[in-house]
Design brief:
Chain lengths: 353, 296
């Protein structure tokens, strides 16, 4: 049976693994130089002093096209597996009528399906594993730069988390079995592919929004507003409240996944609109002229804000939870996959004819 | 004589529609059995139930003394060539034989190779590029080389031209004799059955109308033509299968074991086709025909 399963699958497998091997080869070829460049650049700007944020920005912008392309590939790969390996697995047999041939050989259809699910499922894991390994390794330095960039793309965040580490394996296995199950119920290839895509996309969107934030209790913190975290600061001329926007970033942990980022006042209430601080005189008054602005900076104003009790309230998952979350989520998908596979085996025996 | 196929109250329902309902029949071993009936009589459903492709909604079906489709051992004993003889379009003839060899413990590789060679099938050719007749022969080869005790064929020749049809049935008969197979072959064409089968089952609306050996059926059915007469006035041992009347004349097809002595009748032997048609025409619900204007 393994021979037949392989014979029916080998063309699709060859196409997928040829493409992945080519991608992995390119990444392996360029990845080492990329990592060396980044390390050298960071070392240089550390020696020079004055922080590395400019270099990080520049490095990220130089590599953002392949970075986003690779991330997109990893996000789409499980869907492709579900659409082109999963959905047609049964429907193609039903449409060609060949299930009536193969189900009358001396092998139960449960075993027939188990072998086909097993072989293609393992290939799906291998494909996602190979892809994720190559992309995760290659993107390492760019991921670091992306976290430091603004807008930041932290590794814990919804975009990169799904495309790095072991989670793609879970997604791929789940998408594959989902495709098979949908194919069994829908019984025609094209509608099955459409339904598989819709369901998988919904899951892919729902998990980071609704499930992942609750995998662990998020950390609540309220550090003082740091000048380095300010995205936008506007001193209104002629009085009025101070306009201040902070970056949603955790000081000291740029790769953390920030769920909420707000400015709160001394009583803990969220500040909406502007901050009520004197802007006609005092430390938060707009600088009179350029030299004064350069000499003084905005530091006195932030000291004043801290004195008045304004803080940056953050709710986030720190970046050191990355692997914990990865394994929890992969485990969840593994359970879903096994459940769906069990359903498929039951259905092929009892209900499908 | 043991039964290769025994159904009791067998039914299969799709939603509210019954594809086969309350079917009871008994097919003896060692025959090439023709299962004849109009489209929609439930032939395909019956054969699919017998090979375990479908599970019954009601009743039971027993094949070679075992439950249909139960486990690999039972699957190995029953061969099935499905309607339109499906094969994998992308696989070559040789790969189909390999498939058979891998999936069947009793696979007879020599038989398969010899048949493919005799049929002139190119082993390297993909099944999708074979003609309909060649594909049917390939499917039959798979069914035969599995070495089943019972081979079920569901309208295997429906899509074939007359020549391919004859060749297919010919090779089926040879194989049945050579391997002492029991064969059940469904068709809606009596001519196919007449050429091949020695036992006949006529199925209309899931009901067996008549079953028996072809020779015996032919010997016991008579066509009576004579002056118009009410069929109820025929002797009790003459079972009227069909009746047709003109103003002056009546024609009956009757089944009886006794010779017919009534001199009023011109007696002839109906062919198998006429015989089957007579049964197909019968009102399935009552087994009778409306009396019409007979008593005017």
């Amino acid at each position: 049976m393994i021979w037949l399963a392989w014979r029916q699958f080998r063309a699709a497998a060859a196409a997928m693994f040829a493409a992945l091997a080519a991608l992995a080869a390119v990444l392996a070829f360029t990845g080492r130089g990329l990592a060396d460049d980044y390390a050298a650049g960071i070392a240089a700007c550390t020696v020079r002093g004055g922080g590395c944020s400019a270099y990080v920005q520049q490095f990220f912008h130089a590599h953002q096209v392949p970075f986003f392309a690779l991330t997109a590939i990893m996000l789409v790969l499980p869907a492709l597996i579900g659409l082109f390996w999963g959905a047609p697995l049964i429907t193609r047999e039903l449409e060609a009528g060949t299930h009536r041939l193969v189900w009358n050989q001396s092998i139960t259809r449960t075993r027939w399906l188990a072998v086909r699910l097993g072989l293609t499922g393992l290939a799906a894991l291998a494909a996602a594993g190979l892809g994720s390994l190559a992309v995760t390794w290659w993107s390492g330095p760019v991921d670091q730069a992306a976290a430091g960039n603004h807008p930041g793309f932290p590794r814990m965040g919804p975009l990169l988390f799904d495309a790095r580490g072991v989670v793609p394996l879970g997604y791929a296995a789940f998408a594959f079995v989902l495709g098979v199950a949908v194919g069994m119920l829908v019984r025609r290839t094209l509608p099955a592919m459409a339904v598989t895509l819709a369901v998988f996309a919904a899951v892919q969107a729902a998990v980071p929004l609704l499930v992942r934030p609750h995998l662990d209790t998020p950390v609540h913190a309220a550090p003082a507003i740091a000048e380095t975290d300010v995205e936008d600061l506007l001193f209104p001329r002629g009085g009025g409240s101070l306009h201040l926007v902070v970056k949603p970033r955790v000081p000291g942990d740029p790769a953390a996944w920030v769920l909420s980022s707000r400015i709160v006042d001394a009583s803990g209430e969220e500040v909406s609109g502007g901050i009520s601080v004197s802007t006609s005189s005092g430390p938060c008054a707009p600088p009179e002229h350029r030299e004064q602005a350069e000499r003084r900076g905005a530091a006195p104003c932030f000291a004043e804000l801290e004195r008045l009790g304004y803080r940056h309230r953050l709710v986030y998952h720190p970046s050191d939870r990355f692997w914990t979350f990865q394994w929890i989520e992969t485990g969840g998908y593994a359970a879903l996959t096994l459940g769906l596979a069990g359903f498929c085996l039951w259905w092929v025996r009892r209900r499908l004819s | 004589m043991t039964a290769v196929l025994r159904a009791e109250g067998l039914g299969k329902r799709y939603g509210k529609r019954w594809a086969l309902r309350d079917c009871t029949l008994d097919i003896p071993a060692g025959h090439v059995v023709g299962l004849v009936g109009p489209n929609g009589a439930g032939k395909t459903t019956l054969l699919s139930l017998a090979c375990g492709q479908l599970t019954p909604s009601a009743g039971s079906v027993e094949v070679l003394g075992g439950r249909a489709g139960e486990g690999p051992a039972q699957l190995a004993r029953v061969g099935f060539v499905a309607q339109d003889t499906p094969t994998y379009a992308g696989l070559s003839v040789a790969e189909h034989l390999k498939l058979g060899a891998r999936l069947n413990p009793r696979w007879d590789d020599a038989l398969a190779r010899e048949r493919v060679e005799r049929l002139g099938l190119d082993p390297a050719r993909r099944a999708g590029r074979l003609s309909g007749g060649q594909r049917a022969q390939l499917a039959l080869t798979l069914g035969l080389a599995k070495r089943p005790e019972l081979l079920l064929l569901d309208e295997p020749v429906a899509a074939l031209d007359p020549l391919a049809r004859r060749e297919f049935l010919q090779s089926l008969m040879e194989a049945a004799v050579e391997h002492e197979l029991s064969v059940v072959l469904s068709s809606h064409l009596v001519s196919d059955v007449e050429r091949t089968c020695d036992h006949l089952v006529v199925l209309v609306d899931s009901r067996v109308q008549v079953a028996g050996e072809v020779e015996e059926l032919l010997a016991t059915h008579h066509r009576l033509t004579g002056p118009r007469r009410d069929p109820r006035r025929l002797p009790a041992d003459q079972h009227v299968v069909s009746a047709s009347h003109t103003d002056r004349q009546s024609t009956f097809i009757v089944r009886t074991d006794a010779p017919i002595h009534d001199p009023a009748w011109t007696v002839s032997r109906p062919g198998l086709e006429d015989l089957v048609l007579a049964y197909l025409d019968r009102r399935p619900e009552t087994g009778r025909w409306p009396v019409l204007e007979v008593e005017r």
